Amino acid sequence: MSEEQGAYLSRQQRRGPAGRHAGDAPRIPAPRDHVAPPSGPNGRPSRSADPGAGAPQPFIPGERAGHVNPAPAGAAQSSGAAQSSGAAQPAATPPGPGQHGAQPPGPPQRPPVTNQATAPVHREIETSGALRASRTLWLLSFVAGLIAVGFSWLNREEGQQRLVETVTDLAPGRDPATLEALATLVFWGSLGAVAVVVVLEALLLRTMMRRRSWPRVAAFFVLVVHAAVMVLAEAYLAAPGGAGAAVRWPLVAQLGLAVGAWIVSLSPAASRWFRT
Predict the structure, then answer these.
(1) I need a labelling partner for 242 at 20 to 30 A (CA). Which of 35, 41, 140, 276 fits?
(2) Where are the alpha helices (DSSP H) in 89-155?
(3) What is the DSSP letter of 226?
(4) pTM, whole model, 2 decimals?
């Protein structure tokens, strides 16, 4: 409120109600040099006309519409000094790792040299009864073959002489030394063939007991070769009649036991053991 408005209001108050007509409202002359700022929707002065409208204005108790209490000069100076001193001072830095008694972090802990986890334990699967029976028959077959080879080696002189006579009957015009060398080759070749069959079947049995099912298929072809070897070995190694029974019957038993072992390995119980 300007000084002229204040003086006019004070004069009207001194006059009292007698100095005014009834129903007349007090007229307040508008100041000549004062322009009222535009008001907003709530009756307060709009901040768009204020040069410092961008900055928020604090609320001061006792402030009226259109009137702003002047701030003391000392407060403005102290505020400006505080702002200037705040701008000049650098921002406070957080304390370092060595300040306020804090210790720097040490090196990371070394991992253990040994692993505490235990190794996995593989569950042992019990061999089925069919596979144990098949293994037993294979082993008996090997024993029978080795018996036949042993008796043939013990009677090697008689066996070679018998082979020389047989070869001479087949080719009477050949050199006796050639015929003797041929008889020796046939004799030792027959022994070697029986031993090779035993080794092949033993390797197949070893692989089969490690839960490999393919040796059962391979054993079929080995048995075909085994039958051919048995026929040739019985003809060249066993003597005719009862004299060659010690070689003949072990050879026959070897083939029979091998065939039986192969058939047992094809049983459903053995097949389930291979699949587990």
Answers:
(1) 140
(2) 129-154
(3) H
(4) 0.55
User: Cβ atoms within 10 A of the Cβ of 140, count?
Assistant: 17
> How many whole angstroms separate alpha carbon 266 and alpha carbon 264?
5
Kind plus residue range of the DSSP H or E element containing 50: none
CA-nearest of 98, 47, 97, 54 to 68 is 47
Burial grade of 47 (CB within 10 A; 0-12, 13-18, 19 or more): middle
Reading the block at residue 44, the tokens are: 């307060």
At 75-134, the pLDDT tens digits run: 444 444 444 444 445 455 555 554 555 677 778 887 777 766 776 666 677 888 889 999
Q: What tokens does 164 get? A: 């020389």
* Contacts for 33 with CB less than 8 Å, ≥ 6 apart: none
d(C-alpha 155, C-alpha 239), whole Å: 10
Query: How many other C-beta atoms can be found within 10 angstroms of the C-beta atom of residue 131?
Result: 21
CA–CA separation, 13 vs 62, rounded Å?
A: 22
What's the rounded Cα separation, in Å, for the pair 152 and 144? 12
The two tokens of residue 82 are: 């505080």
pLDDT digits (tens, 9 = 90+) for 26-62: 555 555 554 555 555 555 555 544 444 444 555 455 4
| Residue (of 160, 158, 171, 137) closest to 263 by Cα position | 137
